[in-house]
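Lecture 7 notes: from sequence to structure.
We start with the chain below.
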Amino acid sequence: MAETNGPACLIAFAGGIGSGKSTIAEAVSNRLSIPVHSIDDDKRSVGQSHPDFQQWVSQGIPFPDDFRRQVYDRSLGRLGELAEQHPVVIVEETFHRAKLREPFFESARQMFGRVCLIEIVVDSGVSIAHLEKRAQTEAGHLAGRAMFESFAAVADPIVDADLVVENNRDLESAVLEVCSFLAVEGLTSAAERLNR
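Predicted structure tokens for the same chain:
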């Protein structure tokens, strides 16, 4: 890991499909110059070798646990590479299954020393509106309304979030809330100093 005078941390954005976690993570990344890794990129990469991947996506079938473990292993490898250069890194994912997210976070703690879990919550109507808008503007996104509904049925609650952000209002308010929290935690100064 890169030398640090401040805390090292993986900032993990979690939340349901259509909650805005990717958008908020990218905005915080841009504002604070913290690198962000999207686990969706690893899903696409690992999915290339799975014959059922396109069916899972098109029909909104939640990815099987063994597939998700392969994805998380790939993501942890990439995060390990990022940790060598950046003491503070952002990752975003649904992290909807406790039995899968806990081992992921434990491995991340070994790399970074700390995981700061930020849960993005939103009313289901707002999620559906986000997903419908995204379907009209973004081709090839992994998650649509069918995936939203199937994930909601199997999601385990997140009970240990360091911050819960309601994203039912404007995006800027959510981004400011996250940035303010990270400043209080001492993560913005460490990121600004060392991630440049």
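Points to note: The two ends are 15 Å apart (CA to CA). Residues 1-5, 190-196 have pLDDT under 50 and may be disordered.
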